[in-house]
């Protein structure tokens, strides 16, 4: 019998180890079940947990079952289960962690044309491993094939390095963003147990340091401390979408900031109410002899009331869930509808349209019209008295993308403002007319289209916004 007692922690502690891993990653999953980051963090955590579970089953539970219930469990079956669980950890844990890192770094939003294929390709080596070293025989290879263990170790280390680079590069790139603190907490939560596992479970065995073969069990202490770490932050500000005794939110997006914007709304409403109260008080104190003055006061009250109505409507429209009704839309017709009302605003601002007459987009007309209107408003304000607005369309079938861009010759955007540009309620304007929801709405519309919005700007040299859509053919083309 190969089954027997294993050096290291007693079986009960290995079982506790497994339960703690499951507990931690179930907390992560329940923090926000709708977040793909949370889901893939959970999946990778479950794959890693198989490495601990197999140890408990093979060295503690299965010997008892073999002795007490030989018809239910035998040596061959126990070896097969052990081998399969080993393969899950060796082959699939790190690829799952890489997918998590892709979402963590917003790779799916920044490079949607590559993401779908890359997410699949990252698992191809795992499949090839399963062909070369069948899942049901990994225990044999572990014990008798050093090349197998060395190959598995290098495979996991390479993925670990890629994972680490994605995480650290994201922290560097987003160090000035609103979600940096959240992502820093998550990086700490993930990097420590993964690298302890990669070094203690693979390096020690590759170097054949037998006294340290069970060093990986020290991860029990790390997981226990990480649970405390997670719970501490869940009760103090939130982590990965969970804020205990308060609410849940999308930890990897800026949507949570809307919950902190009551002071902004109160500020705008307070100003308009002050105007209304001042106008009403002036009317009450008036002797009604100057009709022109009364008319001016009533107009002030009416404007403030309309502003409040428009303001609350915008908040409702831009903050609620976006529902799409996509169809094939003529790009030239869409753009012409968008710029129709702008042409007469400033005669010294010209339009340069680079739109193929037969160009089309598969999109929601209403929402994309609103997005373009927001971008045109920003362009007009950036240009000032005179300049040029360029709107163009560029299909990229090989990249599965269709891009609509709008450029202006305005003042540009300072580099320090670019990371916060799509944050809700962030605005560089000083008037109450600007709520800072326009670009936030634009980004959400593009995300709903499975696309992205990108900005390039240089202070004093203009700005370009690019809307990237997944390339789709006409319905009739699909039937050919």
From TrEMBL:
The chain crosses the membrane at residues 12-30, 37-59, 79-104, 116-135, 147-168, 188-209, 215-235. PROSITE patterns: HIS_KIN. The keyword Hydrolase does not apply. It catalyses: ATP + protein L-histidine = ADP + protein N-phospho-L-histidine. InterPro entries: HATPase_C_sf, HATPase_dom, His_kinase_dom, Sensor_HK_Regulatory, Sig_transdc_His_kin-like_C. One of its GO terms (molecular function) is kinase activity. Residues 264-473 form the Histidine kinase domain. Keywords: Kinase, Membrane, Transferase, Transmembrane, Transmembrane helix, Two-component regulatory system. It holds the Pfam family HATPase_c. Its EC number is 2.7.13.3. This is histidine kinase. It comes from Enterocloster hominis.
